[in-house]
Amino acid sequence: MSRWWRSSTLEEQRSAGARSVEWWRMPLIGLLVGGPISLTTSLFLASYGDRGPYGGFWRLLFAGLTASVPIFAAGGLFFTPLEIWLTRRPRHARARDAGMLRGGALALAGAAGALVAYAIVVCLLAAPPPATLLPVLLVTYSLIGAIIGLTYTLYDEYIHQLRISTQLTQEMRVARSIQQGLFPQQCPQIEGYTLAARCQPARETGGDFYDVVEFSDGRVGMVIADVAGKGMPAALLMADTRSTWRSETRNGHGPAETLRNINHSLCHDINSNAFVTLLYAVLDPTTRQLCVTSAGHPLPLLHGRKEVREIKVYGLPLGLRTDATYDEVQVSLAPGDTVVLYTDGVVEAMRPSRELFGFERLMALVQREGHQPAQVLVERILATVRAFSGQISQADDMTVLVLKAQL
Amino acid sequence: MLNKKTETRLRRIDKAIIIDLIGDVTGQGAETIKSAYAEALQSKPERVLFNLGDTEYINTSGIAILISIAMEAENAEHKIEFFGMSAHYRKVFELVRLPLYAQMYQTESEALDL
Question: Which of B68, B4, B75, B3 is nearest to B37 (CA)?
């Protein structure tokens, strides 16, 4: 049940009838019509003042202003039902109708004002007015009326759109804050390892995420994922995927089985033009084994003592087929080894010339900087990609997670 | 970064129809690409090939569209084919297992020389 004190939602504001007609709008419109009419009438009378029976500039000015008062009232009365009717129109039709109706109605009001002004002139002047006076007054006042009507409608729409835009911005800020809360506040301390990660969304909210869970037997699970798309739709799917992953990790299955279950669940949530790429790795610190499984995610990089290589693990992205299965790859981590997980926003960052950062540049960068501490390496990768893109705005979310086995 | 509009052009070569994908393949081009594919199927060609030689950029949503078309084709018991993609996107296609549902070739002549 709706309550009068309940604040309206954005959708309600967008829909018909959400805006009320403020009482001051009608007199304002009347004033906007009557003002120019009053002013031009008075000036006209003032210029012919010496020949009129009443004489004197101030007296004529007063007469002109007084004569336009009924026009103000008529204007207000005329527009009140019109404005009420407009608020009941569907949102998409309101601006068009308002422009035509306010413009047309004010043109009519202007024409009425012209007749009043002409009548005053005829009454006050001793000599007959010029023959062109009435058509000139009619055209001028009608045009002024139409222009005021259209201008007011544009202003009204501008204010309305501004309100929506402000509210959307506020909502996006809240959404960003909520999404930031879904990321680990800090990576867990793992004996013999360091872990660091950062996500840099392209917009207020993004579709990338990473997360880390610690199992009771000392193993640590880490995930990095990328939802197809950007902005709010991707953020919603990201939250869904993260929560499904978190829930599935509690079941005690291996990474491949966990991915199979997540995929099965997401297939019901994802439409045909979307998917999620996800890489899930479980580290056993005691055996130094890293078990990796992937759902269409970019291959993780392993920086060993001599070279950088890709950990070859493939799989169908999540959300495409309910019967998808996944493989596991076991990697033994030697002291000093570094594993780099990343999303495609890193390798698909572009220069203004549309050249991609690419897999080779990333491998070369990890080869060069892989000896750095985990946090430094994360920041260096993101900074290098930003420098590569130059002034071009970030097209996709970028996330990097680094796991380093201490020497 | 502003994406370029996705444009398509259909060519018939013998019993094959080639769909040239020009510009960027992104989520915004979904309807364009799907319409082109539907149009290609109307003449019941033996093969439908997507030319990615003039494609500059494919984002994740674009890949999702291509996969969904490939899977839809497989469900209808025929395979679509791709050629002309850069080494980068060939690698991306392999990551998402697109070759399971579609045939890949380097060039148009390699694709047609069967």
Answer: B68
